[in-house]
Amino acid sequence: MSSADEHAVTANAAATNREDDRRIPARFADDSPLPGAGPIQAFLRFWKRYPIFTGRASRSEFWWWVVVHAVIVTALLVIGRGVDVATGVTTGFWEGQVTEGPAWGVQSILSGIWGLATIIPGLSLNARRMHDTDHSGWWQLINLVPIFGWFFFIWLAAQPSDRGGARYDTGPNREGAQIKPGDAPQ
Fold first, then answer.
1. pLDDT at position 143, please?
2. Distance (Å, rounded) from C-alpha 180 to C-alpha 21?
3. Contact call for residues 170 and 30 (beta carbons, < 8 A)
4. What pTM was computed for the model?
């Protein structure tokens, strides 16, 4: 192959890569995981990357979101029940009374809104976490199997990152370059 042919092949490959990068919005161009993410970083990335089912999510990114989500859901529960108990509309959890007050209804609506707002971003985060462990994002369907599926998914999500997961990337790190916490975008 002559050098002119090699140059043409290289130019075609570069054009193809540019086309691939144009199909991906600029803010999602680097879809590599963020190892060592803190709770605020994980929370912000959850909302910034909500429609993206490609790429990967690190363990810290995934588990910090799980913790923040659990705190918010628990806070909604406690506030709703606490207001009803404080106003004397109903008694505490431990007394076994099942009547619900008006604050409990508001809490149910807020919990429903929160659940609807987080379902798609949660599915995309689960898919990215599965990708980071070098599994298809479809593995999150194992959650449809009661008890066993839940525990199996938790086990999968707790696995360390696998270099093979880079095949799910679409950005500049798709070739599996090791990413250090300081190198990742904020």
1. 93
2. 23
3. no
4. 0.70
Q: What span, in angstroms and rounded, lies between the C-alpha atoms of 159 and 6? A: 42
- Summarised one tens digit per residue, pLDDT across range 27-53 is 555 567 778 888 999 999 899 888 888
Whether residue 164 has pLDDT greater than 60 = yes
Rounded Cα distance, 1 and 86, in Å: 82
Those residues with Cβ within 8 angstroms of residue 185's Cβ, 6 or more apart along the chain or in another chain: 30, 34
> How far is residue 33's CA from residue 86's CA, in Å, rounded to a whole number?
44
Percent of the chain surpassing pLDDT 90: 38
Phi-psi region of 28 (alpha: psi -120 to 50; beta: other; left: phi over 0): alpha
Residue 181: pLDDT over 50: no
Q: Higher confidence at residue 89 or residue 150?
A: 150
What Cα–Cα distance (Å) separates residue 156 from each residue in 74, 86, 102?
A: 25, 42, 40
The first and second tokens of residue 124, run together, are 């995309």
Cβ-defined contacts of 100-109 (< 8 Å, 24+): 103/79, 104/80, 106/80, 107/76, 107/77, 107/79, 107/80, 107/81, 108/80
Locate all alpha helices (DSSP H) within 36-164, ordered by sequence: 39-48, 59-86, 102-132, 148-157
Is the pLDDT assigned to residue 5 strictly greater than 60? no
Cα–Cα distance between 48 and 25 in angstroms, integer? 12
